[in-house]
Amino acid sequence: MQVHIKDDKPFIDMMDDVLQQEGETASWEHFQMAYTAAKETNIDTFTGLVAPGYLPHMTFHPHQLEASRRVVEEMNGRAILADEVGLGKTIEAGLVLKELMIRGLVKKVLLLVPASLVNQWVNELNSKFHIPAASQRKQYVWEHYDVIVSSIDLAKRSPHREIILEQDYDFVLIDEAHKLKNSQTKNYAFIQSLKKKYCLLLTATPVQNKLSDIYNLVSLLKPGYLGSYKQFKDTYGDDRRDAEEHHYLKELIRKVMVRNRREETGLQWTKRKVETIWIDFTEQERQVYENMQDSTSAAATFAKITLLRELCSSREAAYLSMKKMVEENPETGNAYLPVMKEIEKLPQHSKALKVVELIKAAPPGEKFIIFTEYRATQFYLQWTLKQHDISSVPFRGGFKAGKKDWMRELFEKHAQVLIATEAGGEGINLQFCSNMINYDLPWNPMRLEQRIGRIHRFGQKKDVQIYNFAVRNTLEAHILELLYKKINLFERVIGNLDHILAELQVSDVEKEIKRIFADSRSEGEIKVKLDNLTAVITETGEQLERDKLHG
Amino acid sequence: MDRHTLHQFLKKFFLTNGCQLIEEKEGLLHFLLTPELDEELMNRPFYWRYKKRLGQEGDPMELTLLTDPNETAEKAEHIHFGSPRLHKIFRLIRESAQVARLYEKVDTASRTPLYPWLIRNMSVHFSGKRKRTETHSVGLQLLNGQLATDWMENFSQVQFKQQISDQCYCLSPIIRYQSGYQRISSYMHTYLDTIDDSWVKETKDTLKQEEDLLAHFFNQSNQEELEPEILEERAALYKNELDAVHKRLVPSIKMETINAGIFYLSEETARKLLHKKEA
Fold this sequence. Notes:
The complex is a heterodimer of chains A (about 550) and B (about 280).
Chain A: E1 4-6, H1 9-20, H2 28-41, H3 51-54, H4 62-74, E2 78-81, H5 89-102, E3 109-112, H6 118-129, E4 133-135, E5 147-150, H7 152-155, H8 160-166, E6 168-174, H9 186-193, E7 195-202, H10 211-221, H11 229-236, H12 240-245, H13 247-256, E8 257-258, H14 262-265, E9 272-279, H15 283-294, H16 301-313, H17 315-328, H18 330-333, H19 337-345, H20 350-361, E10 368-372, H21 375-387, E11 392-395, H22 401-413, E12 417-421, E13 435-438, H23 445-455, E14 464-471, H24 475-484, H25 497-504, H26 509-519, H27 523-549
Parallel strand pairs in A: 2-7, 2-8, 3-5, 3-6, 4-5, 6-7, 9-14, 10-12, 10-13, 11-12, 13-14
Helix pairs in contact in A: 4-5, 5-6, 16-17, 17-19, 17-21, 24-27, 25-27
Chain B: H1 3-16, E1 20-25, E2 28-32, H2 35-41, H3 45-53, E3 62-66, E4 76-78, H4 84-96, E5 99-104, E6 112-127, E7 131-141, E8 147-149, H5 151-154, E9 160-161, E10 168-170, H6 177-194, H7 198-218, H8 228-249, E11 252-266, H9 267-278
Parallel strand pairs in B: 3-4, 5-11, 6-10
Antiparallel strand pairs in B: 1-2, 2-3, 5-9, 6-7, 6-11, 7-8
């Protein structure tokens, strides 16, 4: 065999020494037990993981096992886990950690996850993987526990920061690692300075737009490979497409990144059923909307677009924005005063009444998640539902982690409806609910996908019902009809949308759309421009499909 | 190791180390530790240092282990494969039983000679693109050089003691321990020559790829403009990374002795067990 064989020479000298002294040596039981212990720890197979064998209560999917195996065996435990939303990155990460622990390679572990997910991580590691993880909340546990879950915000603050930086971690995990894309941030520097042997970065969107995204993530795992950012840019440019062409860069990324796509997992997903619920404004509401649209006085067209969107959501949302503008800048803001007067007179919002109607028509106890972009709307909806004896709980990004857990639990066990604002969408799993109402639509398709991902994920047993609410003859109607429906946004179990947007270099879809509305002088113009955007998105998607087929 | 085997293993470990079994039921073991094991396992060095300084005896703690993941009990911890506690116990037992000199327990009225055997248990680590470890137990009779594999497995039911049985006497080895140990190494080399080595080629190919990749990233043309100290820094980094790649991907085999010992064995037992294996 063409390979160096190293013998254990020191042992025999030591043994000779021991035997020459006439003292007692190990007993037969202990000698046998030592042999058993070694034999049990020795893994006599080149392929596959041993951890699943020790977790008989878990069912792993083939793509999860393969992802974990690659991370352990081929990537040497330093990787970006970049599966699409809902494919079980947490499971893969847990499996990697368990495997490394069984092999005796990892003892000291730090997991940095969003504050709202700390408890969920602790629970899953304990119950699913029998990994004794503790959350850093109550006391300073850094030195005393081996496996700690914390939020990055807490960890980077004194005095935790100093203690953490002193530890030699065997394993560091960062959940939602796309937040580390900017290397200029304190978080990035903090992660960079952690001492870590193995490192996992979890993100569903590894490359959003710029090549620098991937540069920064790879640099955390493979420091120095890509040189300084300037060098990197000089070599590869900042265009993602050029980089794709680049053999070596592609190779490097392949060596550090695992990315499963839904369509490739070969799993049967429950269906998505999408229904648009059209709402007609009352005569009175329509009047307010049109007055607002026609008002040419307001300096900023952008502001007007925002207000119109808000009015499609609730009276309160629009009213509060205008009130703020008046307070901040009375001179220009006063132009809004007449409209505000009109809004005050509106008795209700037709859309909210439609929500009540829909929920009342459903079988008793059927759960719904309502997403809205505005907090004012959230309050209003809560109030309205209460008037109609429908129990609901609010959910916001700003809630403390404990409160989020509590709200989620209330929703699961007691309330019929959960009303969430955008930031609330990240990371919580609500697969016990299968109805979603998009009360107003975000203007960024990725955000919409994230919303849907809350319920349409692993563990969802039923088909998912999505209701899109839109008021006829408004901005909202345009977005829904001209953009989302055309790109088949709701039905496609997305997947390649992030790819498409990145390909298009559309860094901010929302801004793009706002600009279309702001710059257009007629309905016709808006339509043409949105049509163009749609066409480009569709074509790029098809192009990507073709590229994939031809290798 | 299934959980029943684990349960028995742990019970034996604590009992043979002198701990007192307070309670045992399906999936649960409750012990009073000895001071020694408390110091090793319970992670409270200050307590023991303090007690020793005061010249007092410490109070060892009780430990309740759950070998059934579905079991619960107060102040108990789940123990299972992969838990750090079990790894610690494995390490302790391995450290404490590296060398043995043991005599077969023989009930006899007549003078019985015992033959010296060198038993060497080994982990053989194959390290390449992927890693695995084989476990071997080889015995060598130190008079005639007879060699036996799977020794621990074949002799697991024999009883050995730390003192020689009445009426028994030991024959002196002709082969020295050192050369016996060496003979087992030679045997292993012969064995390793016979097994599948496709992993070596596979590893070498990957190594080549990774070296190329690394060279590409660290030898880019636009580096001349860099400051000298940055260049130096990058050269050092390159070396580090290359070392790491080599450490991971230069194929190698390492024999590690788990434990070894001199076992004195009656001819009858040896013949019976070794013969049985051949048959």
